[in-house]
Each structure stands twice: as C-alpha cells, then as structure tokens.
Amino acid sequence: MQTKIKILSFVVLISGILMLSLFQEKDNPLRMVDRATGLFAYFFIFLAILSSEYMIQMKKVFGKGFIAIHHFLAKIGILLMILHPIAFAFEEKSASVLVPVFYPLMDFLELAGRPAFYLIIIAVSAGFYRKKLGRKWIKLHYLNYIAFLLIFIHAWLIGTDLQSGIMQLIWITMALIVVVVFIDKHFIQLKKLLQTQA
Ligand code: HEM
Ligand code: HEM
C-alpha cells in the first residue's frame, strides 16, 4: 500500500475511534462541542508535531513541502483549540475559564490546558514571525512540546473520554511519540550531524 494511503487510513481510524468514544457518552450540546474540539485539537497538534520528524519525506509522500503540510495540520489544530475553551466559557457563562490557575498543584494539573493554550499561541506566533525573530524563534516554537505534555495531563485528569482503556492507550501512545520526536530531533539527529562534521 502507498505510504500516503497508509497515513490517511491511520488518521481516519483514530478519528473514527474518537467519534465513537464521543457518542458513547452523550452530554449537552455545548459539552459535546467542548469534548469534540478538545479531542481533535490534541490529535491535530500531535500530527503537526509528528510532521516535523519527517520534513524531508513530506514532499515525496504528499507532493507538498513540509511547511505546507505542517501549516495545514497546525491551522486545524489551532482552530479547534480556540473553539474548545470558548464552548466551555459559553457553558459556564463566564470568561474566567480562560484564566490560568497555578495553585494548588492538583488544580494546576487539572486545568493545565489553560497555560498550554497561551504557550501554543506564543509558539505559533513565533512560527509566523520567524523571519523577523531570527534564530531565536525556534526556541519559542519548542514551547509546543511543553504545551502538548500539559494538555496530555489536563485531558487525562478531567476528560470524560479519557476514562476508557482504548482512549488512554491512544493518549499515552501519542504523548510517548512526541517525547521520542523531541529526543530524536534534539539528541540523536544532532549527534549524527556532529559526527558527520567531525
Ligand atoms: C499547532 C501548531 C504547531 C505545532 C504543534 C508545531 C510544532 C512544531 C515542532 C514540534 C517542530 C519541530 C521543532 C524541533 O524540535 O526542532 C516544528 C518545526 C517547525 N515549525 Fe511548527 N508547529 C506548529 C505551527 C507552526 C506554524 C503556524 C508555523 C509557521 C508559520 C510553523 C513553522 C515551523 C517550521 C518552519 C519548523 C521547522 C523548524 C526547523 O527548521 O527545524 N509551525 N513545529
Ligand atoms: C482555557 C483553556 C481550556 C479550558 C477552559 C479547557 C476546558 C476543558 C474542560 C472543561 C474539559 C472537560 C470536558 C469533559 O470531558 O467533560 C476539558 C477536557 C479536555 N481538554 Fe481542555 N481546556 C482548555 C485548554 C485545552 C487545550 C489548549 C487543549 C488542546 C488543544 C485541550 C484539550 C482537551 C482534551 C483533549 C480534553 C479531554 C476531552 C474529553 O475527554 O472528552 N484543552 N478541557
């Protein structure tokens, strides 16, 4: 099977599991939007991070360069990520749900999506202004990794859908893959580069 078809089948399969999980536990419409946007935002942000591991292969597989694919995934992820707390703010009839909480620790972890939201906005803005920011833009872009792990914890602790074994497995697998991408890009690939230059 062509790599492109395999990747698209994987995306459809995971999306199907997310939808199944969503409709297994019915909630009021705003809460359904909140859950759906949270789940799919996590998935698309994961895909945006994963795409960065395969920068060179993108053109060959999708016929488009890394930035085009990365941008496409990021756009969907960010749109869903913005809708997610908005739906919850409407449900609660309060904008205070957007304010990060740092103390006590358990509240910080359960509501870790709040600081993650702002970290992603900063990381993504750095992506847009990378030509103006010079090399330091990438350091800000690394905030995406921290944000992703905060979102993992947030969803794990308060997500309705994260109660089932299959969803927990998918969530842990995605988080571990992100850790592997980080280690590979920052330690293994860098080591190889330094070795070839020596
Ligand atoms: C949901 C949004 C996004 C996420 C989660 C994300 C995540 C990432 C990650 C994890 C990397 C690899 C960084 C590393 O470890 O070296 C990366 C690379 C990159 N991202 Fe993003 N990104 C997002 C949005 C964007 C946007 C909107 C842009 C541009 C406008 C962008 C431009 C880039 C570029 C150019 C690179 C390659 C950097 C290099 O030269 O190595 N990203 N992104
Ligand atoms: C101001 C920021 C945020 C607020 C107010 C917020 C609020 C919530 C709430 C109330 C839930 C529980 C929903 C439920 O399952 O009943 C939740 C779960 C979740 N959130 Fe957030 N969140 C925020 C940021 C984020 C961000 C940035 C992401 C990722 C992009 C995210 C992803 C998730 C996920 C994946 C779940 C689990 C959904 C489920 O299990 O159905 N959240 N969030």
- Global shape: globular
CATH 2nd-level architecture? Up-down Bundle
What are the low-pLDDT stretches, counting only 5+ consecutive residues below 50?
none
Sequence of secondary-structure elements: HHHHHHHHHH
N→C terminal distance: 40 Å
What level of helicity do the residues show?
over 70%
Q: How many helices does DSSP assign?
A: 10
Radius of gyration: 18 Å
Number of strands: 0
Heterogens: protoporphyrin IX containing FE
Structural class: mainly alpha
Largest sheet: none
CATH class category name:
Mainly Alpha
Counted up, domains total 1
Whole-number average pLDDT? 96
Question: What percent strand?
Answer: under 5%
CATH topology: Four Helix Bundle (Hemerythrin (Met), subunit A)
